[in-house]
Amino acid sequence: MTARPLVTAPAGAAPGRMLAHPAPADIRLTDVLHALSDPVRLTVVRALAGARTELTCSDVPLPVTKSTTTHHYRVLREAGVITQIYRGTSKMNALRRDDLDRLFPGLLDSVLAAADAQARRMGER
Amino acid sequence: MTARPLVTAPAGAAPGRMLAHPAPADIRLTDVLHALSDPVRLTVVRALAGARTELTCSDVPLPVTKSTTTHHYRVLREAGVITQIYRGTSKMNALRRDDLDRLFPGLLDSVLAAADAQARRMGER
Question: B64 near B40, Cβ under 8 Å?
Answer without folding.
Answer: yes
